[in-house]
């Protein structure tokens, strides 16, 4: 693959699995030096060892993004090894446990807000100082459709993601004068656990592009936002969801479900 991000120093949080891992691996293959963070140190070792064995540049920086002293150590280690931080991908996030509002308690609320929202703040706060010294940098936050349209039993998660979109805009204003762009990606339904074929098909029925996303579908947009091709984009949220958030009704209850669409033979026969 083309080494489009040669020498860029990129930190990806929550990169031990799922979307974060796919994004970290794609940056490394594009020539970046990647700081791989996760709260699970074993997963960090697995990802870093895999990358180094394949000839790519990676450094393990395990830690909890909601703990400011661990975050400081993570960024100090990256600067010591790679010299700077050009790109931060704030990806670490807690989805579970799901709790109905009446089952929820303060500890649940605080942990999800701490990891998802405060974690974005703490990592950005460290990274932005390093970026400001260099006069350039890109911060990519990870939102969710839950910022705009709610999930059932996800009050803390959806509130954290709404906060992330507001944080993205606010940071873009404060950091723009220092040469730092701040954007967010909004993943749709991404299959990070390896769904069965039947589950993928069922999920795909309600997605205009007909399938759930794969973790690697998030990597191209992340690399684009980190590149100079995106040099005039800041404060924005880019949807990467196969069209899911653009639809008003789910396909199964729509007035004209996709099963009623004209066949390709009918379409081509009209010419
Ligand atoms: N998968 C989806 O469909 C989807 C949809 C919308 C948004 N997102 C967002 O994308 C991001 C990644 O999601 P995913 O599905 O790949 O999740 P995942 O659960 O597969 O991976 C998340 C990783 O983050 C790590 N992590 C959790 N808490 C951490 C902490 N305190 N510090 C550091 N690392 C921590 C976990 O150990 C895990 O390896 C999350 O922010 C999530 O909210 C995912």
Secondary structure layout:
Layout: E1 9-12, H1 18-29, E2 33-36, H2 41-53, E3 57-60, H3 68-82, E4 87-90, H4 106-134, E5 137-142, H5 155-175, E6 180-187, H6 197-204, H7 219-225, E7 237-240, H8 264-269
Parallel strand pairs: 1-2, 1-4, 2-3, 4-5, 5-6, 6-7
Helix pairs in contact: 1-7, 3-4, 4-5
Nicotinamide-adenine-dinucleotide (NAD) is lined by residues 13-14, 16-20, 37-40, 43, 64-66, 91-95, 115, 119, 142, 144, 187, 189-190, 192.
Model description:
It is a single chain. The chain has helices at about 20-30, 40-55, 70-80, 105-135, 155-175, 195-205, 220-225, 265-270; strands spanning about 10, 35, 55-60, 85-90, 135-140, 180-185, 235-240. The protein is α/β, with parallel strands linked by helices and about 270 residues long. It has a single domain (about 10-270), classed as NAD(P)-binding Rossmann-like Domain (Rossmann fold, 3-Layer(aba) Sandwich), CATH 3.40.50. It has a seven-stranded parallel β-sheet with strand order 3-2-1-4-5-6-7, sandwiched between helices. Strand 1, helix 1 and strand 2 (about 35) form a beta-alpha-beta unit. Helix 1 crosses helix 7 (about 220-225), helix 3 (about 70-80) runs parallel beside helix 4 (about 105-135) and helix 4 packs parallel to helix 5 (about 155-175). The longest helix has 29 residues, at about 105-135. Bound molecules: nicotinamide-adenine-dinucleotide. Nicotinamide-adenine-dinucleotide (NAD) binds near residues 13, 92 and 142.
